[in-house]
Specification:
The chain is mainly beta. It has 2 domains: 140 residues, TolB, C-terminal domain (Neuraminidase), CATH 2.120.10; 108 residues, no CATH class. 3% of the residues lie in helices and 52% in strands. The protein is built from 1 helix and 21 strands.
């Protein structure tokens, strides 16, 4: 996950955080806005036996937090800082779901965290470190969302906010309103584009979405989908870029 505006010593950088499954830690990287250069700036060890998903949260106060989860259901919340130019983390909260989680995404504006429990569904919880971690159901695994629940992403605009869910069990993507009562807007698949020689997507783990105008077909935003099984040609997994305008058209979103 990535957030802009992190103070690395006296330097303002964009910070990327990834879960390091070989070391059960969090790896932190700075991104130079001018050149795009990426530099490793720290590692945070965790007590998790099998680290899995990770996401970032930046409330209006400007502090930056990382959520990391493990296959045992634990979530650890770290406050990130780098006063001397090396990123570090302080554990400030922990909570647990009953079974294996993975995907998560934080809503910085409304200070809440969406998290996926793979065989159960999607939950919402207060993202603030000083608040109780009371889980509220968003959508359950069933007729629309098929286990495993994988990546989660937030589409936020002046008009509407949507939560996008990777429903790995049937290779689809589910869209719900990002506000209670979390109205279901529909589901779609990313199919074959034969004329462009681009295969569809399947076995998706991570997803990301933005409402920013990226130009051309992405003027209404872009959905990035990890394709776990590339078939044209047969190669390692890759990523597909989907115009959000196509999602809006397919689901008839308001």
């Amino acid at each position: 996950d990535i957030r802009p505006g992190f103070m690395l010593g006296k330097k303002n950088v964009d910070l990327a955080v990834a879960s390091n499954r070989d070391r059960n830690s969090l790896s932190l990287f700075s991104i130079d806005r001018a050149s795009g250069a990426i530099s490793e700036v720290g590692e945070i060890p965790t007590p998790l036996a099998e680290i899995y998903g990770v996401c970032l949260f930046k409330p209006a106060s400007g502090e930056l937090y990382a959520f990391a989860n493990g296959k045992d259901g634990r979530f650890l919340q770290y406050r990130l800082s780098a006063p001397n130019g090396k990123a570090q983390g302080e554990l400030v909260r922990s909570f647990k779901v009953e079974t294996q989680p993975e995907g998560c995404v934080a809503d910085d504006q409304r200070q809440r965290l969406f998290l996926g429990e793979e065989d159960v569904g999607v939950w919402e919880v207060d993202a603030r470190a000083d608040q109780p971690a009371t889980l509220s159901s968003v959508i359950k695994v069933g007729d629309v969302v098929h286990a495993d629940v994988e990546g989660l992403a937030l589409y936020q605009s002046d008009a509407h906010d949507y939560l996008v869910i990777s429903s790995q069990g049937n290779d689809s993507y589910v869209v719900v309103d990002a506000e209670p009562p979390y109205t279901l807007r529909g589901a779609f698949r990313v199919g074959l584009n034969a004329s462009a020689g681009i295969d569809g997507t399947s076995e998706t783990d991570g997803i990301e979405v933005t409402s920013m105008n990226l130009g051309g077909p992405w003027s209404k935003g872009m959905l990035v989908v990890q394709d776990g099984r590339k078939r044209m040609p047969e190669q390692a997994q890759n990523f597909k870029f989907v115009p959000w305008a196509e999602v809006t058209k397919t689901l008839k979103l308001p």
